[in-house]
Amino acid sequence: MPGERSSHRREATSGIARHGRLPRKGPVRFVAVLVAIVLAVSGASVTSVAAIAAISLKSQIKTVALGTKEQKAAAKTSIDAISGGANILLVGSDTRVGQTEVQAGVADGSRNDVTILIHLSADHTQMTAVSFPRDMMVDVPSCTGTGGATFPAADYQQFNTTLGEGLGCTVATVESITGLTIPYAAEITFDGVISMSNAIGGVDVCVAKPIDDAYSGLQLSAGTHTLLGLQALEFLRTRHGVGDGSDLARISSQQVFLSAMMRKIVSAGTLSSPLKLYGIASAAVKSMTLSTSLSSTTTLVQLGLALKDVGLSNALFVQYPTAVDPRNSNRVVAASADASVLNQDLQTDTKFTLNADSTGRASVTEGSTATGTASGTSSASASAGSGASSSATTPTSTATALPTGITGQSASEETCSVGNG
Q1: Model's pTM, two decimal places?
Q2: Is the pLDDT of residue 357 over 60?
Q3: Each residue of 346-364: b (16+ CB within 10 Å) or e?
Q4: Which one of 139, 188, 216, 275 is CB 3.0 to 4.6 Å from 192, fit for a cystine?
């Protein structure tokens, strides 16, 4: 990152007070909910899902305006599947305000402790979920935040502070980092993660070695565990319980959970059950804020139709490539060469795959370690075709491999969180 940068906090030029950013212990939010909704919608008829959503859910949806002309145009769409690609930003807030299950920590203000960019390819055969580390130092562009307040650009800011100014500022920052236009965005809270895991009947997660984390409260033995409610949230929050205790390790462990969650949705009869679909959507929208471009039930159906041909092997989870910040060893910055390749591939809609040994620093391929080999998730990928096109159950043959420095996995890969022994 060139030049010397100011790390001052930005003030809204409109005079509207910004949210506080007080120190807190770092809880993490996981934002797989919208992905799950979209995947669920893709397996049901347009008529049934649209009817359920329009009648029962529309009044529950909370919205926020993002402001750009592309985002406004995205709200005016037809019931047909989206033409071309789509970019959706999923943000997890660490706010305690209004939360019934988790009250510990500082309640005022909010941070984007988890941020995932979903990129759907133009031909609707590949979906990429890119996780951005919360501790990455970035240049934040001028942006429109909460209540229409405008904020000036600021250099060398910690990425997870952008939500304090509003969802629009987090979106603008990711657009600046990647060079993409992002017309859709959603924010979810603690309660949404808990409700979502309950609605799908829990997620089967493999742990290679025991997890014992006094910070999140999570204690798991080696093996496979069905995680529900608060325990699912604790797994997604845990940093000290996995690998080297870093935020990058936590992202890797979260990808284990998200992949297992997607396999569960596809294999457990969810896609053929209107009742289960409604349960998932209802649990989600009560704890989510959607951009106005995404708040239409028609748009949710469109996204579902656009994703219906993405097989699990072509649903990729990627960690945005970073390197140690030369100014602060506890922070990271974008790894410029690898990040440039990933950004270019996303911008040009290039199909890509991950390298064979690309799993993150806190995950291992299931069965690759003798300690804690799990046995409860193997049936999930075997039935992957029950909600995805059979023609898309293997990686796209024309895809190119990402650089070896970029880690992640596909949804079809059965992996285990490494734990901390």
Answers
A1: 0.80
A2: yes
A3: beeebbbbbeeebbbbbbb
A4: 188
